[in-house]
Amino acid sequence: MTLCVRAPGLRHVLADVIQEVRRSVSQDIDGAEILHGLLNAPWLQSLLKALLSAHDTVAQKDYEPVLPPMPEDLPEDEEAARIVCLVKNKQPLGATIKRNEITGEIFVARVIHGGLADRSGLLHAGDRIVEVNGFPVDGMEPEQVIQVQARSHGTIMFKVIPITERPVHNQTMLYMRAMTDYSPQQDPNIPCADAGISFKKGDVLEIVDQTDALWWQAKKLPSSVACAGLIPSTNLLKRKQREFWWSQPYQPHFCMQTCEFLSIPGFRRSMRLCRRRAHSTIHPSCPTRCPSSCYSALNSPYEEVVRYQRHPEDVHRLIAILGPSGVGVSELRRRLIEMNPNIFQGAVPHTTRPPRGYEESGREYYFTSREAFDNMVYNNRLLEYGEYKGNLYGTSIESARHVLNSGKICVMDIEPNAIQAVRTHELKAYIIYVKPPPLERLRETRRDSYITTDYYVNRPFKDEDLQEMEDAARKIESQYWQFFDHVLINDELQDSCVQLLTAVRQAQDEPQWVPASWIRPTAEP
Ligand SMILES: Nc1ncnc2c1ncn2[C@@H]1O[C@H](COP(=O)(O)OP(=O)(O)OP(=O)(O)O)[C@@H](O)[C@H]1O
């Protein structure tokens, strides 16, 4: 490309300005004399000369590549066409095309944000492509058009009939957390697999275009690339999930555990035993009263999220820790609270069991009647609850609120199926998943540790305990990974404690992605 602006024109303009200022001086206009003096000052003159000579040097350079000449034989009566020349580098064009099945005409289906076509500003969704590099494309299959385009090196020329009414984009920033995995390479329906982006559960996506009902454009965060990619819209992904679900052979639905065996967080051994029993017991069919435990494929595939930072004067976020049985959730939680009981505290659970001699209501438990307990269940006041040896145990929202309102950080260990109950506008739970390290490291680090197998029995970990822990971890991860705000691999205990402390501090003091419905109650959950 050759820049055809030459400096002499600019010089003339400057001379005219000086001339004009001189005329103003003779007319005795205020300030004109000062301006005249300034423009004639030797220092300004030499500065302007240097500037103009730099301009001349740049303007006389030839730039590569040279675009092909504009076609001269455009018929007079032709629709107003636009000739678009793009210089292809290694990047894809960043646009998809479609064919009108009735007329056979080829259209730009979408322009990918940040891609080559988008940055040129010359191609738009809805433009009709008439020619590519001089080849008429009407009646061609989109694949054939792509081949013509792919064969061109250096520059590519499109002749397009521009769309008359371009849709107005009043897109606001929108972020979604993926609640499912997606791979464009395994999706036969995507318009162009290379234009798609893959994502995994828990990834945060910046949605840059939702104009198409089926295919959105998004960037996966954190992103350093300018170019967006295609992802299925909520409705399309839901449809895919439904189709997949129906195509699967019937299998009884297994929950990780049922509510009946759900146990209560805390240091108490009975609770942990109850939990362990629950882990090893798989019950068919999911009871309707714990639907959240079965985060099925039919739930929304995306969750709108926003960046949230707790105001220093607001109550703290609830810290909820979970992991497979035996991984060290109780140990880590206990150590955290012991480190600074003035800052960290657990929520006192309720139970229907009678108090033992040394126990005080409100310290170890709130001792309550069965009727009162049932009432709490009925009114959804319990974050989780369960039955062990004929007695009910549960942690109430009020109990967690009590800790938070006292200015402390409430730290709970929960079962995975209580995640939904603590992810609320009020508690704004920060979910920490404790993951076992690889089996080899588990064997090494747990050599001197004890597993609690019965109320009074601790014994060293056996290999099958560790294997079981791994299997349970895999199950939890496959179902709940998208909800984890932090994943802590519990390898060396000391390191894990430091990591936990850091994560808890970040949860309280640094911006985090949280569901938009927590901040804007009108947003869809
Ligand atoms: N990183 C670690 N290295 C060595 N031992 C550990 C580590 N983390 C935890 N332990 C030990 O492993 C044992 C089980 O831990 P803990 O009781 O905390 O498990 P848990 O996840 O609460 O499981 P459950 O809920 O079934 O009790 C304890 O003896 C604990 O001290």
From TrEMBL:
InterPro entries named in the record: GK/Ca_channel_bsu, Guanylate_kin-like_dom, Guanylate_kinase_CS, L27_C, L27_dom, L27_dom_sf, MAGUK, P-loop_NTPase
Keywords per UniProt: SH3 domain
SMART domains per UniProt: GuKc, L27, PDZ, SH3
Any single Gene Ontology cellular-component annotation: plasma membrane
PDZ domain boundaries: 83-164
Domain of life from the UniProt record: Eukaryota
Keyword check for Membrane: no
Residue intervals of the SH3 domain: 171-241
Keyword Transport included in the entry's annotation: no
Domain (Guanylate kinase-like) ranges: 316-505
Segments forming domain L27: 7-66
Family: Belongs to the MAGUK family.
Protein name: MAGUK p55 scaffold protein 4
Gene encoding the protein: MPP4
